[in-house]
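New to this. Explain these tokens.
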Amino acid sequence: MTMRNQPTARQVRLGSELRKLREAAGKSAKEVAGLLGSSSTHMSQIEAGSSAISEERLRRLAAHCACADEELVEALVAMATDRTRGWWEEYRGVLPTAYLDLSELDHHATFRHDVAVNHVPGILQTETYARALFSYMNPEFPESELEHRVIHRMKRKVTIEGPDPIPYETVIHEAALRIRVAGRTAFRAQLARILELSEAEHVTVRVIPFGLDDFAGAGSAMVHLGGAVPRLDTVVRDAPHGTAFVDSEAQLEHFRTLFRRVRGESLNPEQSRDLIHELAKEL
């Protein structure tokens, strides 16, 4: 079977979950490979995401590892047999791989939760806001490079604005709603866009006001994408070395708890809309 030079985050995740199944069963890669009629080298490649696995072999692996979680097995089979070549593939070799990986995760997500502190979440940004942000952060980029990033970000909105949107909830700190990225007029349009989207039944926007006492969650920014089963959720965070995809069960539970806490400290949706209206009037 053809080796993948650059497996996607989703393919790497599948391999990681298969390794977890094997390790939970106390079996070595060589032992499982023998049960599947394969080699330990090939098994290592599958677990690294650099080689595919058939549905038949995956089900046999799950059976050999005594995995009784049928929903998880079906979700893993769906990951293994998926042949989707989404719109993001046109940017392969043009944009960093993390951009494509996030778009693919968006596409397969069952829900999305954002916490934003410094900037409006990317999925809510207007084109003008996104262009100003990319231009400021990457002043050395030629116009064509910036345009690829802006268009890609606008296309990602299909997750919540397309024909089959997923439930979306975001908690935005008031700071992000006051920093006038792209200037006064453009930012007024950005706030209007957030208000417009917040009226959608599947979208919930909450705001953490400056006046909140004892808020120490400035480092809580995240994107939490729901998997087919909770175990397959992914948290995405911006780190100094680049984009980090978090998928360990302990860390996922930590970020679920953190999101619940930040959401609990925020204004309710109606109060949040009122605050955004007031901020727009100030511009």
Remarks:
- Residues 42 and 58 are 13 Å apart (CA to CA).
- The beta strands are 112-116, 168-173, 203-208, 222-225, 234-239, 242-246.
- The two ends are 59 Å apart (CA to CA).
- The longest helix spans residues 249-265.
